[in-house]
Design brief:
The chain is α/β, with parallel strands linked by helices. Helices cover 40% and strands 23% of the residues. The protein is globular and about 45 Å long. 42% of the residues are buried.
């Protein structure tokens, strides 16, 4: 199997580490060679962060170059647009529609861009955009946005729901498991 590439992008503190751990756990359980990069960026300062997940028969590097990502999973709309050049032709973006103003917008030096989903589609990307924050709150915690996103991504994979649930059980503490299972199911079933 050729190597597949997934980028998880967002803003620090949104749970990209757990999302990449869950994805890595699932892919390892399916017998793939998996490389997961460290989180890059100012994650502790609320800045832009990116994690690379690569899998296949044999993966030699955890780094994804421009034009190589099969999927971009984004916790925030502007981050999805920012990383669009890394998406390969025919690639897929799964994004939260939540908007978090970057510093230039907060200070008034810039405005948050309009119509980002439409602009990404115009560039040829298949975009699944959903309000993950609302779904996470329905599951019981606004902090479950990451698992809602993984649930939506799971609908694009051939792995069974049971395999995803086993990966969740391996990655999430027992006291948060039911909440995360519900968040996953809401994401998986969401229309985007």
């Amino acid at each position: 199997m050729e190597t597949k590439n997934i980028m998880i992008v967002g803003v620090g503190g949104q749970g990209s580490l757990l999302a990449s751990k869950l994805l890595g756990q699932l892919l390892l359980s399916r017998g793939y060679d998996v490389k997961v990069s460290e989180v890059h960026g100012m994650s502790q300062r609320g800045g832009s962060v990116v994690t690379y997940v690569r899998y296949g028969d044999k993966v030699y590097s955890p780094i994804i170059s421009k034009g190589e990502a099969d999927y971009i999973v984004s916790f925030e709309l502007l981050e999805a647009a920012r990383w669009l050049p890394w998406l390969k032709e025919g690639g897929v973006i799964v994004t939260n529609t939540q908007k978090m103003d970057p510093m230039p917008v907060i200070t008034g030096a810039a405005q948050y861009p309009e119509n980002l989903v439409e602009k990404m589609k115009e560039k040829g990307a298949t975009v699944y955009a959903l309000d993950c924050l609302t779904l996470a709150e329905q599951a019981g915690s606004s902090r479950a946005v990451n698992i809602v996103l993984m649930g939506r991504l799971s609908a694009l994979f051939d792995a069974s729901v049971e395999e995803w649930m086993q990966a969740l059980e391996a990655c999430v503490p027992a006291k948060f498991l039911e909440l995360n299972k519900k968040a996953f199911e809401l994401g998986r079933g969401a229309e985007a």
